[in-house]
Amino acid sequence: MTTTDTLDAHKHRLEQLAAFIREADQILADWDNYSDQHTDLDGWPHDDHAYGMRASQRDADTWKAFNRIRTGAKDILTTAETQLQQLPPTAIQPRWTWQLSRLYIALDRLTELRDEWLTTRDGLPPSARPGTPEFDDARAERNAEAWHYLDEWAGAGETVLEIHRAAEHALSAPAPKTPAPVPARPRPDGHSAAARR
Q1: Residue 5 burial (CB < 10 Å; 0-12/13-18/19+)?
Q2: At what angle do helices 3-37 and 48-66 cross, to 10 degrees?
Q3: What is the pTM of this model?
């Protein structure tokens, strides 16, 4: 793979990340709107079952949206770390390193939950298919456990995009000019300081 191919692949992953963030933000906004309309002033749901089903749908939608970037997520973070190390200190936001570490932790946990789900799914009886309570309940449990980490990616994922923009800006900025040597000032006796050396 050439450098151009690598850059194109990274830009494509960043576009997918941006799409995930937009979709996750919309899912969360829709959830907040639903929650506001279906809870009392103390935040208690009017209908626990309906509220739980809607929360489960939020989790499933966010998991599905994250699948868009799942396979390239580690590469996204690795490239962002490399870009961060190459940036001049004045271009770095102090929170970026911390937020990248949060994204790594969230990704590790999401990978564990995916692997646990695959093991659980493979252990279900053949009659447990999508649409059956046994299958759907197990999948909903995975999605619920994943929600916090998916939300972490939706919130802190913007950091990766910020680092990329800073790296592009640093590459396009003109190199600082080397100052021209200062000519020696003539001394009062008419000779330059350099000539007396």
Answers
A1: exposed
A2: 170
A3: 0.81
pLDDT band for position 189 (cuts 50, 70, 90): low
Distances (CA, A) of 139 to 10, 50, 72, 104: 31, 18, 23, 23
CB atoms within 10 A of CB 63: 21
Nearest partner of 77 among 150, 146, 160, judged by Cα: 160
Mean pLDDT of the region 33-37: 94
Q: Where are the alpha helices (DSSP H) in 2-132?
A: 3-37, 48-66, 73-86, 95-123
Q: Which amino acid is at 145?
A: E
Residue 109: how many other CB atoms lie within 10 Å = 16
CA dihedral 157, 136, 115, 7 (to 10 degrees): -30
Measured distance CA(171)–CA(80) in Å, rounded: 15
Rounded Cα distance, 180 and 183, in Å: 9
**Residue range 97-136, pLDDT digits in tens:** 999 999 999 999 999 999 999 999 999 999 999 999 999 9
Residues 181 and 172: their CA atoms lie apart, in Å, by 27
